[in-house]
Amino acid sequence: MDRTVKNREIGEVLRRTKAKRKNQACKTYELKIDQSHLNAATKRHLSRLFLEAKWFYNSLVAQGKANRDGLWNANYKVRTVKVKRQNIFEERELKCLSSQMKQEIIGRAKDNIVGLSRLKQNGKRVGGLKFTGRIRSIPLNQYGVTYWISNNHIHLQKLKQPLRIRGLRQIPKDAEYANATLIQRNGYYVHVTTYQPKKAETFKQKSIGVDGGIRKQLVLSNGVEIEESVPITEKVRRLHRELSRKEKGRNRAKAQEKLNRAYDELTRQRRDIRNKISGKLTETFEIVCVQDDNVSGWQRLWGRRVLATGVGGLMSALNKAHTPAPVDRFYPSTKTCSRCGHVQDVGLDERVFRCEECGLVIDRNLNAAINNEREGLKQIGVPVVRREFTPVDTKTAAELVGYFNGIPRVRASLVEEAGSRASARKPTTSVVR
């Protein structure tokens, strides 16, 4: 086929795909490869696949160091690369790494060069690309070629045995598979990118204010308070003790691997809590107003209490996943009265805010959340009008409490104010819209 005709056909396919993507939503899912059914040859293949990716990437870096244009002219069809072992270069065959995977690794190396160039343009001191000791992810960028999924199994290019995967049920049946990434992290995972039909827009309430803290991780301006904690377990402490008794060698490496897996389990639990809370809030409210608190400073003061909660990750996720309504770090949300705007000093031990000007008595975190909502809306130019709570607000608060209490290790309730259970309808805790 003539090259010009082929390019024209490729361009036409790309245009049709681009038009179709406008009516689709892009979502990525994490699938876990079940290693209990892998045979010895498959385990060796997967292990060597990441090893060959490291060899190939390091050969690209070496080409770039030897010749300025060496990386840009790299050949993805090479079958062997030179690997330095002590002071000798040995020729190694690339048996598991396909041409498509090599193309994407070359693209990653070029992206790294471009990133370093931009940092240098911004005045940062940068060096050249460095050799890597380990590759933890391999791109699979052509569905149907580098990978495909069928009958709860994923098939990888150049691998004979299909791999059973967990988590496929979370992907809708009408989803269209696109790129994927094979990841090695205390096991093997696949991050699959899909395109799905866009869902009809559901009614969202206008806005919500959020205040973060140590004792109550999140307090919302509609009176909902959320506590969550995933503390260090006794298993992790025991593994730390075992690791400290091991001498350097294979046994110590095995103990370190066990400890890494235990920490990964805690990390996954915290990530699950963060995603469910932030996802529910951004699904329910159009604008989420969050203050840019210095969470790293909290951790220096309160250490493990902050580490166990992951409040920093929660607030970061809220800042990234909604219509931006930033509240400056130095805005005195706790010291300001949410009714009259009077500013006064409030001690850390004072859990109830009592306004010296208008006499308002309100939970300090709820007061701060209402102020954050007002200030966030003001920053993005949304008209701010004071109003009372409505039955819709009360219903939404009750639904949020029920949803959050269904998440493991999360406890939600309505704010307790002045010794009694506060209601989201209380006029003194009105929010701005």
Produce the secondary structure layout.
Elements: H1 3-21, E1 24-33, H2 40-66, E2 80-85, E3 88-93, H3 99-121, E4 137-140, E5 147-150, E6 153-156, E7 163-166, E8 176-184, E9 188-197, E10 205-212, E11 218-220, E12 224-228, H4 234-245, H5 250-284, E13 285-291, H6 295-302, H7 304-309, H8 311-320, E14 326-327, E15 352-354, E16 361-363, H9 364-379, H10 391-405, E17 410-414, E18 416-417, E19 420-421
Helix pairs in contact: 2-3, 4-5, 5-8
Question: What features would you describe in this structure?
Answer:
The protein is α+β, with helices and mostly antiparallel strands and 433 residues long. It folds into two domains: 23-197, no CATH class; 205-231 and 269-429, no CATH class. The chain has helices at residues 3-21, 40-66, 99-121, 234-245, 250-284, 295-302, 304-309, 311-320, 364-379, 391-405; strands at 24-33, 80-85, 88-93, 137-140, 147-150, 153-156, 163-166, 176-184, 188-197, 205-212, 218-220, 224-228, 285-291, 326-327, 352-354, 361-363, 410-414, 416-417, 420-421. The strands form five sheets. The protein has a seven-stranded antiparallel sheet with strand order 4-8-9-1-7-6-5. The protein starts with a helix and ends in a 12-residue tail after the last strand. The model is unreliable at 418-433 (pLDDT under 50).
Number of helices: 10
The helical percent reads 25-40%
User: What's the number of domains?
Assistant: 2
Could you give the order of strands across the largest sheet? 4-8-9-1-7-6-5
Order of helices and strands: HEHEEHEEEEEEEEEHHEHHHEEEHHEEE
Strand tally, please? 19
Shape descriptor: globular
The stretches of 5 or more residues where confidence is low (pLDDT under 50) are: 418-433
Radius of gyration: 27 Å
